[in-house]
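Exercise 7. Predict the structure of Membrane associated serine protease, rhomboid family from Citreimonas salinaria.
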Amino acid sequence: MFPIRDHNPSGRTPFVTYALIAVNVAVYLATWNLEANPRALMSFYADYALIPALVSEGAGLAGFLTSMFLHGGIMHLLGNMLFLFIFGDNIEDEMGHAGFALFYLACGLAAGLGQYVADPASTIPMVGASGAIAGVMGGYLLLYPRARVDILIILVIIFRVIPLPAWILLALWFAMQIFGGFSSTGGQGGVAYWAHAGGFIAGIVLTIPVWLKRGGPAYWQVTHGHPPHPDARYPLTRTHIPRVPRQSPGQARGRGGPWGRGRR
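Solution. The predicted structure, encoded as tokens:
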């Protein structure tokens, strides 16, 4: 189950969101060949990932910033960029280009700090933009709790898209991070749960001034938690494939194709 789009159009072109996506993709493409060489990859992570144990020794502080532009695989990258694409444009619309850029970086730094505080002796490199994007999601929850988000549900061979209020999706996601953080043993599992939680909380806190500027609780009363503009609609379009009328058995036998009964 994951989001594919929201019904919350932005009023300006999200240049910073697009730039962040481009930078993350470019960095991944420039370093993807390291995945075939574990020794070179770990050497690269030692310089640019966030490794809490190094920070505890007074080194590797740059990793708080550089780690948020690295990814551990193509699916890791695509998942993060999808979330940024869905939720980033609206927060950028509210905060402005420069404000959003600073907000994104601040959430990423807070996410790294959250993971560090949770396990300062960990030697596991932390990479990914998900902590910063979690902050974007936290800000989205505060400003548009009832915005509609389309969720793709995959059950074996069943594919279905259903709309959900943003607060259900985001609150469930946050609860999963908290549960994962407490249930993971020694930081194992491959997911930086506390970075996600820290970024999410930072996003809410840093968005409070924008929310208060809009009226705070009064803003919610006016919008009822929805975006303050009409929802984007995604109407189903009719297919251009012509419909073939059903035929009787007698008609079908008289019109065989290359492999039908009409030609022998």
